[in-house]
Amino acid sequence: MGRVLLVGRLAVRNVRRRPAEAALLVLAIMAATTILTLGLALHGVTDDPYQRTREATAGADIVASVGPLEVAPGRAAPVDLAKLEALTDAPGVVDHGGPYPATTTQLEANGVRTEVWAVGRDSAAVSVDQPKLTQGSWVQDGGVVIEAAFANALDVGAGDQVTLNGRSFQVVGVAVTAAAPYTHVCFGHPVCSFFFGSVPAWVRQGPPAERPDGQTATVDVGPPPDDAGLVWLTRTDARGLAPAAALSYVMNLKLADPAAAPGFVDAHSPTSWDALFLASWLDIRETYGEFVQGAQRALVTFSSLLAVLAMASVAVLVGGRMADQTRRVGLLKAVGGTPGLVAVVLLAEYMVLAVLAATGGLTVGWLAAPLLSDPGAGLLGSAGAPSLTLSTVGVVTGVALGVAMVASFASAVRAARTSTVHALADSARRPRRTRWLIALSTRLPVPLLLGLRVIARRPRRVVLGAASIAVTVSGIVVVLAGRAAMASDWEGPSSLDPQADRANQVLLVITIVLVGLAAINAIVITWAAALDARHASALARALGATPGEVSAGLSAAQVLPAFAGAVLGVPAGLALWAALSNDEANPTYWQLLAVVAGTVLVVAALTTIPARIGARRPTAEILQAELP
Amino acid sequence: MQQEVVLAMLAKEPSHGYQLRERLRQALGPLGDAMNAGHVYVTLTRLERAGLVAAEPPTAARERPDRKTYGLTPAGQQRVAEWLAEVSWPKPDLAEFHLKLIAAAAAGLADPLTIVDTQRRELLRRLRDAQRAAMAEPDGTDAALLLEGIVLRLQADLRWLEACEQSWTGRGSRS
Amino acid sequence: MRDTADTAVLRARGLRKEYGTGEGLVRAVDGVDLDVAAGETVAVMGPSGCGKSTLLHLLGGLDRPSSGEVWLGGRRIDQIGERALARVRRTDVGIVFQAFHLMDELTAVENVELPALLAGRSPSVARRQAASLLERVGLADRAGFLPSALSGGQRQRVAIARALSNEPLIVFADEPTGNLDSAATVDVLRLFDSLRVAGQTLVIVTHDARIAATADRLISMRDGAFVDETRLTGGSTGQLGALVGLEG
Q1: What are A174's strand-pairing partners?
Q2: C240 vs B30: CB contact, 8 Å cut-off?
Q3: CA C247 to CA C242: how far, in whole Å?
Q4: pLDDT in tens, A585-617
Q5: Half-sphere exposure of A196 toward its Cβ, with a 13 Å CA cutoff?
Q6: More confident residue, B84 or A254
Q7: For residue A12, what is the nearest residue in chain C, using CA coordinates?
Q8: CA gap A103, A239 in Å, rounded
Q9: Which has the closest alpha carbon to C163: C237, C120, C112?
Q10: B19-44, pLDDT tens digit by residue?
Q11: Residues 6+ apart with CB under 8 A from A346
Q12: Is C72 helix (H, G, I), strand (E, B) or coil?
């Protein structure tokens, strides 16, 4: 009891003694935990809105579709509607809507051309899958209704004009549906037949018009783009968009027991090559989830990177602090603290900070998660606050503690194992003397001379500073590579991909956090160096160096290692990217160069302030204060 | 004790002999205990004979006739002023001990180091006494300041003995 | 057990501590035998660099000898494990350093109760005890002060109170007055004297003759070995007068 009190007291007091450093530590760990919380909290975020949308739109339990089957290059067999209609009598089916004609076509709006699925619907409401209007009215001849997420991406609403396959339509409404995911509900498109196999070469070939046999049955056999949007028109209008032979048909089925849907799909899916395709509502729900999962994956990946960076910051700060704690350690041991207890005392402080950071990260992440999931991917209502499960809390707290532990464990154990007598005698780590650096510095201009000598005093701290910059730069490189990869993954105009949009936002947030963290690191290290070197600086000034030269020297002491760190960070980042991802997309060279140059400039700017403050204190005061 | 000390103690105001003694006791603390009670009176008589102090008869009839009040004469005043201006200082007589070591070593009569050790023990004993007296004295009294002076002198002497020891140890190993 | 005057609380046999090897070999402590009886005050004196601090570290369980034995309260401590040694320092030994070595971030009373808390006392018991120790060193009114707000002498008195926290068998002091001015030195000497009177066993390592002179037994150390041992007896305040030329 007494010992617990003691450990707690020592930890808290030491935190309070250096509040700025403690705050920086918390910030560093919090950055990683926030991003991790975001990533974990977004998991399963769509379930709820999906259910709500499904209820509001009488969502289908099974979406069945048939498409024109290509039997020879460019030649399609007519759609076999009988297979679709036969499903309505299948056991378990209680209701159905359709079949509705559907086709892929070109949509043009606001100068953007993109692929869409157009489905012909009755103007009267139906009992299965009646999209819920969020704007305007339901389909009418010449009037098109656009799926909400797609409308949002296109930035169109009721009253706007769009062009479908060259024909002009008025947007009469915007609606949400529980059956919209563009890629996976294939509406009987030929490619669906190969859903479980590899896509045959002909699917990837160009438009049928180029085919040598001159077939003019213009069946578009290209695979539907990942992000093809969904629009509804009247049956008549839909039929007008494509030749009859190129039309697919889709039918929505309601089962007596929605839970039986996967079984129903298994029972009725064709076993052979066929144009019939079935998807259960569970499949669809999963597809919605993937929108959020993309962001989640990015977040979890980058949170591990941030954890590394946080660990570097923590190690810098802890390393500096531990050196100051040598005497404390000796003292604790002298009055009878066992090595274990000493290690616990040293670690407890960081554990306290880690728990604080985890709490902060969980709170901020939990509050920020709705911002990232809010578009709701075209579902009804907002996603609301993502659930904060016990396991999320556990994982985030564990990571925070882990970061603090890994960063401080070695120092704590080393400190706990030093000889008591040495620890007591060595009130502070003595500056080192790196002979060759000092010799080199005599040939350089005054600021560089002073800067090199600052480096020579504390080579280890300089290495840590360079390492932290290297981690930051590699993080930025990974972000750049990620963006480049996304741009190349995405085949259409990226502004229309809601997923890419959100991922971009996420990457932007991560970049800001990374850069912020690195900036904090740079300031901390310079400040530490300025404090450490103040006696030497005061002496230099007493011997005639100007404050300007001294502060330039202190800045130089940071900028040189920052440059080294930035240069190292580039290959490290590329290697990290290669380890994280299968994609090979590399950022461009000018981007990499800009990152290195920018880093050095930013570090130079950041270090000026603490260096100047450090260099401007009156010389006599410092020299006086340093007297033993 | 120097006559001038007694003389100067009278400079503030004419006093009885016992008042003088009390003042001295205050200033000296435990060191004053060693002072012979009659010493002050003997000194006063001598000073009176020298014309430096003058005794005034008892002012009130009920006072005992031997309780004379002593005051400074103009000659006494002048003597006190001269004494205050003097820079005399007790001379540390180290030459004697120094020569003792040299003589003992030269004649092979005794080991100088043994002499140093014996002397150190003696000084340490004195230091202990002075230190105990100093510790018993409340802080900030005149006596405490005097005792500190004694302690510091003894420390200086002990340090010199240390130097002697080092020097003679060196000579011993050389021969 | 502690009141038995003849019991050797501390016993060292053939104690050696060496640093370095070959040409650079330094024998900081070179074959020291020592017995300290309960209630005794022993001062070890010698010039700086004579190995007296190293000796104190060996005796106090802060460091391990290269060879030789250290017995504390009848138990050999030079070979026990680091944890056990820490426990010895915690309960059997109190150490006072020249540089005070207080925890800057803890108040006076918190510094004093530190060893008691380490020993597993309940917080309330430790606090009560610490308060009474501060009272004993005359700093009851400074209990809530941080060391930075205390004078050197006050800090050293706090450190002494801390050394007494677990009622140790023996208190070691390493140049306890080395960083103090004359007045503060007298305060600390008074405190040690009161400990001596109360029967506390004390081993003080110093080159300050003032402390050494107040000990029961005085050991001179040179080049890592004991060269002289004295019990200071005789002398009286009567002779004090002679020191200032007061007699006659």
Answers
A1: A135, A146
A2: yes
A3: 6
A4: 566 778 888 888 888 888 888 777 766 776 666
A5: 8
A6: B84
A7: C105
A8: 8
A9: C112
A10: 888 888 888 887 777 677 778 888 88
A11: A322, A325, A329, A408, A411, A412, A415, A416
A12: strand
Residue A473 banded pLDDT, cuts 50, 70, 90: confident
β-pair type (C41-45, C201-206): parallel
Residues counted in chain C? 248
DSSP state at residue A205: S
pLDDT tens column, A25-37: 888 788 778 877 7
pLDDT value for C143 = 92
Interchain CB distance below 8 Å, A337 and C83 = no
The residue behind tokens 């050394």 is C163
Tell me the pairing of strands C225-231 and C217-222. antiparallel
Q: Which residues pair with C8 in a beta bridge?
A: C37
In C77-198, at which residue ranges do the beta strands (DSSP E only) sit?
A: 93-96, 170-174
How far is residue B139's CA from residue B149's CA, in Å, rounded to a whole number?
Answer: 14
- CA separation for the pair A129, A179 (Å, rounded): 8
CA separation for the pair A361, A26 (Å, rounded): 9
**Which chains have at least 3 CB atom pairs separated by less than 8 Å from chain A?**
C
At residue B163, the 3 state secondary structure works out as: helix
Q: Tokens for A234, please give them.
A: 């009247």
CA angle centred on A345, ends A341 and A347, rounded to 5°: 115
Residue pair B112/B167 in contact (Cβ under 8 Å)? The answer is no
Of C183, C210, C235, nearest to B155 by CB-CB distance is: C210
The pair of three-digit structure tokens given for residue C33, joined into one six-digit string: 């035998």
Q: Are the beta carbons of C123 and A2 closer than 8 angstroms?
A: yes
Quick: pLDDT tens for A374-414: 544 455 444 444 556 777 788 888 888 887 787 777 777 77
b/e sequence B121-158, b meaning 16+ C-beta within 10 Å? bebbbbbbbbbbbbbebeeeeebbebbbebbebbbebb
pTM of the model: 0.65
- Residue C155 contacts A, CB cutoff 8 Å: no
Buried b or exposed e, range A134-173, using 16+ CB within 10 angstroms: ebbebbeeebbbbbbbbbbbbebebebebebbeeebebbb
What three-state secondary structure class fits A54?
helix
Instruction: Choose the closest CB to C240 out of B31, B124, B139.
Output: B31
